[in-house]
Write a structure and sequence with these properties.
The chain is of the alpha/beta class and 399 residues long. It has 13 helices and 14 strands. It has helices at residues 6-10, 15-28, 47-58, 71-85, 100-111, 126-134, 154-160, 183-193, 253-266, 272-283, 290-307, 344-355, 379-395, and strands at residues 34-35, 94-97, 117-122, 138-143, 165-171, 200-204, 229-234, 247-250, 323-324, 334-336, 339-341, 357-358, 360-361, 371-374. A hairpin with a 2-residue loop joins strand 10 and strand 11 (339-341). Helix 4 (71-85) runs parallel beside helix 10 (272-283) and helix 5 crosses helix 9.
Length: 399
């Protein structure tokens, strides 16, 4: 009889993929379902990046790369960090991984022991808590709300820090809320963490370029926490390279050594052709790729105006990424068309069954009363999805 490890038993399946799989199953049965589940740009990879990958194949970059990545890619990442974030890193401080998810796991595995605490401002990306569990750690949650744009305060953070705290893990811009921390907010957070040298900041900045205000700040820019900060980024969101699986971490020297050691025993170097293509992507002026950001901005306006008209939704105006995270508290602990809605996951399932629109409930994001909508979809699908949801809820029997 097979018996799973306790480590595996602690983990849950990603709710994002659970819902997207349900959408696929329904589509396979012939149902006209609109999916707003996955956080994936719906654009194709730009031609110059594809051409660089073809060139890498023809030039026989088909052998193992160094564990932390090819030197020219790590140099390009250092140049990007200096150019865009005013951050000084040496190539030896960069570890290129199989997606930003592995970059985060490398850092956690390097610093977290059984029972150690990792602070997660909620809402958080679905995998954060599961990653902490995987490493034997314990998540400590800081609650936020739509009223403060789902952002923690420095005072909340300081109250959560204990001698057992090993890390603060957050994303800015944030998946799922679409909010981001401004310079002044991060400076206050940095001042708090600087008082606790046993705490490492893991700053997930994968949505950096999808910022409609153009004001991205990395907390590593504050010298008082540079030696305590791991910056996480990658190619998936800004360059529509989700399937190419290239992420990276930029760490203080002591932590970079740990990441390379962990990765060397797990996967070794990342895909070589994708690494070479990433050099081209990072060295190209980003104005070449801004058409994607401009399109996301247009979709944000469209969805915001339509979503405000949906009964029972409280909607804020996301400043970055490509998500809405409306509060649907109005429907919690009510019965809709005979279905009891205990939390946001039940509501997301109701929308899938009744309106044929796939979303992701907020429970696995650390929020019981919000639902995540990805607007990385065509305007046609977004308009139809909002129409279906509005009509469904207007006609619903509520008790």
């Amino acid at each position: 009889m097979n018996k799973y490890s306790e480590r595996l038993n602690r983990l849950s399946f990603s709710q994002t993929f659970v819902m997207s799989n349900k959408v696929r199953e329904m589509k396979a049965k012939g149902l006209d379902v609109i999916s707003l589940t996955l956080g994936e740009p719906d654009f194709d990879v730009p031609p110059n990046i594809k051409e660089a990958a073809f060139a890498a194949i023809n030039e026989n970059f088909s052998h193992y790369s160094p564990v932390p990545g090819f030197l020219d890619l790590r140099q390009a990442i250092c140049e990007k960090l200096k150019r865009d974030n005013n951050l000084e890193y040496a190539p030896s401080q960069i570890c290129v991984s199989n997606g930003a998810k592995q970059s985060i796991l490398n850092v956690l595995a390097s610093i977290v022991d059984d029972g150690d605490e990792v602070i997660l401002p909620a809402p958080y990306w679905v995998s954060y808590d599961e990653m902490v569990k995987m490493m034997g750690g314990k998540s400590v949650f800081i609650e936020t709300s739509i009223e403060n744009n789902f952002k923690m305060t420095a005072e909340q953070l300081e109250s959560a820090i204990t001698p057992q705290t090993k890390a603060l893990l957050y994303s800015s811009p944030c998946n799922p809320s679409g909010s981001y921390y401004r310079y002044e907010e991060l400076e206050k957070i940095a001042n708090v963490v600087a008082k606790y040298p046993h705490v490492t900041i893991i700053s997930d900045e994968i949505y950096e370029y999808i910022n409609y205000d153009g004001e991205h700040t990395s907390i590593a820019e504050f010298p008082q926490v540079y030696e305590q900060t791991a910056v996480i980024n990658g190619m998936s969101k800004a360059f529509a390279m989700t399937g190419w699986r290239i992420g990276y971490s930029a760490c203080p020297a002591w932590l970079a050594v740990g990441c390379e050691k962990i990765q060397g025993q797990m996967t070794s170097g990342a895909n070589t052709m994708a690494q070479k293509a990433s050099v081209t992507a990072l060295k190209t002026d980003y104005s070449e790729y801004r058409f994607m950001i401009d399109e996301f901005r247009n979709r944000r306006e469209l969805v915001y105006n339509l979503m405000k008209e949906i009964p029972g939704f409280t909607v804020n105006y996301p400043e970055a990424a490509f998500y809405f995270f409306p509060d649907i508290s109005y429907y919690i602990e009510k019965t809709l068309n005979g279905k009891f809605i205990q939390d946001a996951d039940d509501f997301a399932m109701f929308l899938l069954d009744e309106a044929l629109v796939g979303t992701v409930g907020g429970v696995s994001f650390g929020n019981q009363t919000c639902v995540r909508f990805s607007y990385a979809a065509s305007e046609k699908d977004l308009k139809e999805a909002m129409k279906r949801i509005k009509e469904c809820l207007e006609k619903a029997t509520i008790s």
